[in-house]
Structures are given as structure tokens and as C-alpha cells.
Amino acid sequence: MANKIKIALIGYGKMGKEIDTLCQNSKDFEVVSISLKNKSEKLDLKGIAKADIAIDFTSRDVVLKNIEEVAKLGVNMVVGTTGWYEDIDKVKKIVEKNKIGLIYSPNFSVGVNVFFKMMDEAAKLFSKFPEYDTYGLEIHHKAKLDSPSGTALKIAGKIKNLNFHSVRAGSNPGFHEVVFDSLADKITFSHQAYNRIGFAKGVLKAAKIIKGKKGIYIFEDVLN
Ligand SMILES: NC(=O)c1ccc[n+]([C@@H]2O[C@H](COP(=O)([O-])OP(=O)(O)OC[C@H]3O[C@@H](n4cnc5c(N)ncnc54)[C@H](OP(=O)(O)O)[C@@H]3O)[C@@H](O)[C@H]2O)c1
């Protein structure tokens, strides 16, 4: 059997556990290290050094430090944690200095990445018709820290005058809706994640993409 891709999980909450389950049932991946199962733990640097790819699903408070530490080990990364994008220039420097590969996305579900492309097209089409007002709505479970979501910010970056309203309640794993509203009619685009499997599958696709590469990549740009 071909060698499996060795994964180090950093963060073992909702997403870390979902990715672990997929790896356990996969012929292509094995988890060799799990760090930061809770806030009182330290990074398992020895274990991470043995991995092909480290996958970070922690929080914006610790993700930058994790990227610095993992980069020093020369290990490539998939970063799913959101809320840190104002530090993108710092991260680019860390990636270049340590000659690693890093891929990130506010949303690793393939469906949402198709949605991103649709939003590029919608932005072009609706720019010719100023009679349409735009607004966005995103709903996430009550434990989600960042608001608006990284996905909402990414969509808002594509469409002029688009502001998102955020709801944090219940257990929704992720809902995003963009509405174009005129006096005559309304066009609605929406994506509802039913669970976290789509994110985890996308993360493992990203792990395959980034293995052996150098530099920084956005999942949306390299998915196809
Ligand atoms: N890109 C995507 O597709 C995508 C999809 C879903 C979620 N996300 C993002 O991924 C991140 C994690 O999401 P999640 O739902 O898995 O969160 P979660 O269930 O809260 O899990 C986070 C994990 O990281 C640990 N952690 C958090 N802060 C830490 C700190 N300061 N020091 C050490 N360990 C820490 C947590 O430990 P404790 O249990 O002790 O807090 C837990 O093990 C969030 O930023 C979320 O927005 C991205």
C-alpha cells in the first residue's frame, strides 16, 4: 500500500475531531499527532515535525503563534482557523522565510467555493443594474467567535456595497445568503452546510494540494 500522508492536527474541537474521523476511515491519510486538545496544552513539536502536513483549527488568539512554530519545523500547513486575515502580510513573510507551503480559506467546503465563483459572476452581472440593492445574512452556532464570518467577509469583498448581518444562535454549522433586491423582484443565493463533513473533506483535498509545495495559496484559487 502506498505511504499515507501524515497529518498533525492542531486544535481538537468540532473541526479537529471531524477531520480525525475522516482520516481514520481513509486509505490516504493518517493522524500522527494531535496538539491543543484544550487551551492548557502546548504544541506537540516532536510529533508535528514527523508530519507531512499540519492542519490548524484552533482560534484567532493562537493561530499566528502556531503558524510561526510549525513553519520553523519546515512543515507545510492547512489553516482553517478564521479571524486572522489582517495578519496576512506577517504570515506571507513567515512562509517565505521558512520556505514552507501554506493553504488557507475561510471555508473549505467545495460547495462554498463554487458559491464564491458564482458571486464573482453575480458581481459582474449586477454591476450593470444599479436598481438592485444587495444585502447578506449569515447564521452560525452560538460558539462561533468571529462575526461576520470569514466567509461573509470574503463574499463582501467581491460585491460592491454588500454588508452582512450576522446571527449567532443554536447549532447551525454555517448559512450564507446574498440577496439582490429591486422594486420589481428579488434574486437570492444561499448556501447551507448541513454538517461539518464538507469542510473536513475540503481540508483533506487542500492537504493533498499543498503537499510538497512552497508558498501561500488560497483554496478557492487552486481548487480547480
Ligand atoms: N475554514 C473552514 O472551512 C472552517 C470551518 C469551520 C470552522 N472554522 C474555523 O476554525 C476554527 C475552529 O473551529 P471549531 O469549530 O473546530 O472550534 P472549537 O470547537 O472551539 O475547537 C477549537 C480547538 O482549538 C483549541 N483552542 C482554541 N483556542 C485555543 C488557545 N488559545 N490555545 C490553545 N488551544 C486553543 C480548543 O481548545 P478548548 O476546547 O480548550 O477551547 C479546541 O480544541 C474557528 O476559527 C472557526 O471559525 C473554519
Under CATH, the homologous superfamily of the largest domain reads: NAD(P)-binding Rossmann-like Domain
Strand order of the largest sheet: 2-1-3-4-5-10
Total number of distinct structural domains: 2
Q: Mean pLDDT, as a whole number?
A: 96
H/E order of the elements? EHEHEHEHEHEHEEEHEH
The description of the largest β-sheet is: 6 strands, parallel
Q: Kindly provide the radius of gyration, computed on alpha-carbon positions and rounded to a whole number of angstroms.
A: 18 Å
CATH class of the largest domain: Alpha Beta
Please identify the structural class as seen in this structure.
alpha/beta
The distinct bound ligands, ions and cofactors come out as: NADP nicotinamide-adenine-dinucleotide phosphate
User: Number of helical segments?
Assistant: 8
What is the overall shape?
elongated
User: How many beta-strand elements?
Assistant: 10
Poorly predicted runs of 5 or more residues = none
Distance between the termini: 27 Å
Q: Percent range for helical residues?
A: 25-40%
Description:
The chain is an alpha/beta fold. It folds into two domains: 5-107 and 197-222, Rossmann fold (3-Layer(aba) Sandwich); 110-192, 2-Layer Sandwich (Dihydrodipicolinate Reductase, domain 2), CATH 3.30.360.10. It has eight helices and ten strands. Helix 3 (63-72) packs parallel to helix 4. The model has no long low-confidence stretch (mean pLDDT 96). The structure holds NADP nicotinamide-adenine-dinucleotide phosphate.
